[in-house]
Each structure stands twice: as structure tokens, then as C-alpha cells.
Amino acid sequence: MTADSNQHKSPWELYYGPNLGYIEEMYERFLLDPKDVDPAVRESFEKWGPPPSASAGANVNVSPPLKVTTDGSNSIKTVDPAYLKKIVDAGKLVRNLRTFGHLAADNDPLGLTPLPDTRLLEPSTFKLTDEDLEAIPASLIWEEAPGTISNGKQAINHLKDVYTKSFGFEFAHIHEQDERLWLRRQVEVGMASKPMSAKERIALLQRLIDVEQFETFLHRSFVGQKRFSIEGTDTLVPMLDEVVREVAHDGARHILMGMAHRGRLNVLTHVLGKSYSAIFSEFHHSPNKEKSEGAMGVTIGWTGDVKYHLGAHRSVKEGETVETRITLANNPSHLEYVNPIVEGFTRAAQDDRSKAGYPVADFGSAAAILIHGDAAFAGEGIVAETLNFKKLRGYENGGTIHIISNNRLGFTTESKDSRSTYYASDLAKGYEIPIVHVSADDPEACIAAVRMACEYRQKFHKDFLIDMVGYRRHGHNETDDPETTQPLLYQKLRKHPVVSRIYSEKLKEKGLLNEEQVEELRQQGLAKLQAALDEVKGNDKSYKQPKVDDAGSKRRKKDIVTAVPLKKLSAINAELLKWPEGFKVYEKLERILKRRANTLEPGGKVDWGQAEALAFATILSDGTPIRLSGQDSERATFAFRNIVLHDVENNSTFSPMHTLPQANASFGVYNSPLAEASVLGFDYGYNVFSPETLVIWEAQYGDFANCAQVIIDQFITAGRVKWSEKSGLVMLLPHGYEGNGPEHSSAKLERFLLLAAEDNVTIVNMTSAAQYFHLLRRQAATLNTEEARPLIVMAPKSLIRNPSVASDPSELSEGSFKLVLEQPGLGKKADKVERLIFCTGKMAIDLEAALELKDGQAADAWDWLHIVRVEQLYPFPKTDVEQIIARYPNVKEVLWVQEEPQNMGAWNYIEPRIRARVTEGTTVRYIGRPKRSSPATGFHYIHNIEQQRIVSVALTATSKVKVR
Fold this sequence. Notes:
One of its GO terms (biological process) is glycolytic process. The protein is of the alpha/beta class.
């Protein structure tokens, strides 16, 4: 056998693309002058010969390492399999360091977490010795090894330092190859090339001292008051400073932030610029230290909120021309529920809504920062819902910077009891978000992680997560004794120095500062704090306790023109029925839509869907942008909208709202993910940030709003009185009892009525298409004014196509939204009316159907009856109701008729309001389903029996029926 026949393929053939090109370049240098290349590389070329040509892709046989025969000759050249295996095993070790190095990283400041088995990171696991590694050229196992690293041992040592010391990197779950390579380069080479300057290090120490002293000063000056201190995760503040600097430098004009209460006061004062004196004043003037967290008067305002829930705004200059506005969102104690609010803020700040079509987002113009708690990040489902927005068309924002302020505890619950994952951050892996674990006691590493996060966001427009591992120096709040539940931890903590002390020692070791200079920094900070407190105490005599401003809660009555000339409506209607040439609409849908062509002519009728489309179009023509989102909002759950059409041949889409010549603003319509809380929160945030936009969230079914109850309770209905946060958000909640069971009948009208107070919302349940048209236009007209309020609509289901709901075109071109409607054909002979029925929504249509009107008129046999539809439930239309009751002097009984059970629906809200307005001796009665724990029956035939009974009892004179 000849030597040539024993030749194996060259290991150079394992390389391709840029890596192969690099080897070829090194070989050319080797041919010119062997001393011009690293000794290890030179040795490889001498052993293996030239690499194959990258351009030709040829397989070139080269001389392998010599294997000496037993007689000492080397005439036969063969590949040494053991050497190849060493290379392969060294490559596996590199891969393990990159993938699992985070398991051995030193980023737990208290050493609380037992280290897992990390033998897979050791050369000995692969039976690799130092000599073995030294014999391998670094470039064979680390393609981008710098010139200072020549062999495998140096490469492994360097990568081990990178991946298992200050940082824990998790990038292996990222699917995109270019992202993984970029992240790897940043870790292995890029971060080391960006050390902090001496000036930056001293400024960082000053910031840490400020953060620490602020907390200790509050603790000493306001004994026993809660502040939910940042202590243990102090480095969060300089991290946020760095994010602000980075994204402002990249051109962001808005930075939107969300966080829970821990550390919030420190962030407010040091990042948002809220003065020490303002913070101290809120502590100093607290009326009762012993009251609960929601104590009245803690903050100045209408009813206000506790100081550690409040948000703030600040404008900062970056350079001479760019001004960046920082906003910290208000947030209640439902921790992570602020996340989608901030995401909505951010997208609203990015969207250009000034032109027809979809709004155009400039992702560079605004950035979101979310600070999470470790227990909440893993525990609250709203986190996963919000992370899912990352690449969704109507919700993405070009990347959110996430920071887990990880203090290893949830109140008194330890990590082992609060999550099933190894890391608090593991949820983010499912959304392909890069993760860096870093110690809160290593400020420079934290800053380096922030810089990487900002660069990644700038380059790839995606989220990034930093898990900053720290601790909680006090209990859940400063009055709580943590040693009852974590005694060993807090015994250890008493001996653990604060981060400013740790970092100052490092700077002193580097010779950047001496003890006298550090002490001077501390004294300067204390002097500022003391001066602010002295100022507050000096102003104490002139201070007046804020009053609750009930008067400011009422909106002023104002005439709003919502009618649109018929000529304009006809022109718009024609445009809405134009589609691009060659666009093939589903034949059945095309026939349905084409029926709208003549509905605005005399004798025509405008149904619910057409009324909505005309309202949207006229609002756009007025220059008001619209955002509509929900799980099926393009088509609508009940297929009445179809505002985005699909070509049956190629599935391309088209919306006539986007090509409407009359439109002067954008129209964004998005089918949302199957998540109510986060989507409603996002839309609320979008509307708060862009109050001039008509933002509409539509539930698939009204009772799906159950899943968003925190957003409704904490933000939509209470945000105005707690934080002066104005919103004109519209909620469309399909509601109606039609035999579809307990889960698809009720939008829980009673819940919204319970939450209605201080003129905080508008709640309606309408019965005509024209009413819907005028309502939408009225809501759009009040946006961005003091009159703006969230609008809660009990939207119809079966009524959408009920002919009784369709309206004459003149009702759109004339009139306005009516708070109450009286049943046509009834009540003309006022002195004969003995029963007055009040009702709302679908119930009114069911009663109308039972009257069997002819030409819109009831038979004389109904002279004893009149029916009134309460179209707006809140604010209650008391004047209209009083006038109607006064018109019928002989009324003996007033009924409230509803389809919901007695303990649900509007009865408990309506009863005292009606009873207060009837004359003495007039009976007020309820007609409807009895009290129930479930909203409706699941059997259709039983539903029909119940509904028939309600109608029958309501329309039968008292003398003829025994009332149950």
C-alpha cells in the first residue's frame, strides 16, 4: 500500500466561507514568510499543507502529521486519529463553554445558589491535557481567536474567563444564525475592547453612593414609613442611566419605562429627576403613618395614589439638538400589569398617524424599558403575553430592554417555591430573547451588559433581557422583619457590604481614588439630602393638606355635532365599495357588501356594520386616526365588519379604509393575539400616550373581558382619579342572551356599573345602528379634551343583522346620540298609560317584537303601556328619565325588564335611581331571571322558555298575571 493511498482528507475542509478565507490568507502569508504567522499556525501548515481553494472548492490532499513506525522510520505518512479526536473534543469543550458556561458564572453576590454539575466545562472531562491543547492551533477551535491567542490552551482559558466569571450568557436558544454570531463576537471580543474610562468609573461610584445614601437617609429621617427600597439592587439606577444615554444617542425622542414599587422612589429621583424635596415632602406630610398603603392624601391629586406607585416625566438633552423625554408609567401593585401599558406607550410614540393607510412605525424614535421582579416575571402570566408582542405586526416596537431586578424573594417566598425553572428569566427563552445574568455587586459588568443590550436592539430591533442578581437588604417593606422567614440569609446579609463600598474598594485598588476622595463624595451627597430636608421642614408652616377635588371630576355638557350630510355619506359609501382592479373578493361576501350600494337612498336602511364603517370613514375624514384591535377585528367575530378583504386567488389583502380619498389620518386594524389583558393594556397605553387617536379594543365575546379585569379595575376605570391619566379608549363587548350558554352571553354589565363613579366612564347598551354611528363620532370628538372618558359598549350579537336595529339614512345625517329612546308606536295617550317599562339593549328589541307593530304603530290594546330604552346607563340620564315619568301621571307601576339574572345586569344599579324619581305609591318591580351564580343556562330550549316568560310577564297587565 502506498503512502498516497493512506492519505485522509485535510481538516481544513471543515472550514468554509469567511473562516476558510481567513485560513487561505494566513497560508499566503506563510508562503511569503513563514515567520510572519503565529508559530502554532506555521506548525499546522508544515504538518497539513495548504488549505483547499475557497473559490474552486477543490479537495486538496495535504501531508498529515507524521506517524513514526515501530522501526523508527517515518517513510509512511498517516493521519494520527488521536490528534483529530483531540481537536474534535476541544471543539466540544468550546461549544459547552458557550452554551453552558453561565452555569458556572460568578454572578450570585451572596452565593445562595448551589452550583450545578459543571464538569462538562472542564478539559479533563474530555481527557484533554494542557499539552494536548497547546498542540492545537487556536483557530481550529475558535475561528475568530485574536492574534494574541495562538493555541488551544490559551483559547480555552480565555473563553472560560469570558463565559464563567462575571457574566452568564444564554444565547443558544436564538435561532437566527447572524444574531448568534454577533452576540458571540460581542462576548468573546467586543466587550473586552470597550473598557470603562477612569472618568466613567468615578461617575459610576458617585451614582452608587447617591443611590445608597438616598435610601439610608429616608430610613433614618422617616422612621417606620414604607419606601420599598432598592437596597441590594442599587446598580439598577446606573444601568437605567446608561440605557437612557445609549438610546438617546441613537436618536430616540421618547424613552418609556415601567416598573413595580421596589426601588421606584430611587428611580424617580435619580433617573426621572424628581427632586429630593418633592420626595421628602410626600413622606413628611403623610397624614397617618399607620394607615394602609392606599391612605388618602399621601399624594396631591384628585384621590391620588401612594408615592411608590406614581410615574413621572423628564426631558433630557443629548447633544445640542435632540431632546429625549423619559416617562415612567404609573403602576399599581399588580406588578407586571404595567408591561403592556408601556408597550402601548412606545408604539404610540413610534407611529406616524398623519396619513391614510396603516400608521408607519419608526422604531428608532422611541424605546421601552421594563424592570421586572424575579418572582413576578416567572409568576404572572401577563409577562408571557407581553413578551409575545415582540414580532407581532400591530404591537412590536423594535425591541424592549428588560431588566430583572432579581432580589431572590417574592415577599417571603423563596425562589424554590415560586418557580419551576432554574433561572427567573427562563420564560424569555421561548421568545428567543438573549439573556445575560450579572451580579448587582459588579457594576461594571452591569454597565457592559446594558451596552450590549442597547447595541443588539439598535442592530436587530428585538428584545434583550438582563437578569441582574442581587438581594433585598430589608423585608418586603421597611417595617417587615425578614428574619422570621429567611434567618440565615439575613444573618449573612448583616455582614455583606453595600455595592458602593465594594466598588469604591476596587477603584482604590486601581489607584483611581483614595479614601479621602471617596469620603468627600459621600459628604457632598449627604449635604444635598440634608439641605432638601431642611427646605421641606422650613416650608411646613405654609403647607396645606390637599383636598379631594370632587368638583373637578364632572364633565361639562357640551353640544357635539355628530350628524354628517347625506351627500358626504353617499360619496364615502361609494368609495368603500371600490376595490383594486383584479382583486377577487369572496363571492358570497361581495354580494353582501354590494347590498350597501343603495341603502342611503330613500327607503333604504343602514345596518350595524355599515353604520360603523361610515362612522369610521367620517372620523378619518375629520383627521382623527383610528386604531382597532381584537382577536378577530378585521372580520369581526360575527362577520359583520369585513373591513380587511382577502383575495380568493392569492390571499392578498385590501382595506378600502386605506385608500379612502376623504381620509386625513391613519387607520390601523389588527387581529390581536389570543390574550385579553395584555392587548387591552396595550391599547389603553396607546390611547393614553396618543389621546388624539380613537383606540378601540373589541372582545371576541364580552365575557372574555374577565381575563382583563386587572387592567379594567386598576387603569381604565381608576387611572383618572389616581393619576390624572386621561383616556378615551372604547371597549366593544358583545353582550346578549341568545341561548349560547353561560360563557357567551354576558359581558358582565354589572361589574362596569359597580366601577362607575366620579364620572369616570361612559357605559352604553344601544338598540339602533344610527345610535352607534353617533356614539362613535361623539367619542372621537371628545378625544384629547377634558371631556374624554373610556367608553364601555355592550355591543350586539344577533341584533347586528336584526332589521329592527337598522336605521333610516336620515337618522345619520340628522340628530345625535340619544341617552334614552322611547318605543315608537307606544305612549301616545299619556293619561291611559298605567305601566312604564324601562329596559336596555336586546331586551328592548325582544319586547318590540312581541308588540307585533304594524307600520311602526302598536294596536290600541297597548294604550296602557309605554316602553323606554335606556341607551346610556352611566352617567345616568336622570333628566330624560324624570321628564318621561312626569309625562305619565297615571302610571301605577314602573318595571325594569332585563334578560340577565337579578343579581347581574343593571337592576341593582337602576332600582334606586328609578325609585327616587317615581311618585309615592308607584310600584317599582323587577322582571327578569332570578338570582343565579352562573350568568345563563347552557340549554337553548330552556333559554327560550325563560326569555318568553320574561316578555310575557312584562307585557301582561298586573290584573291578568300572577307575578312570581
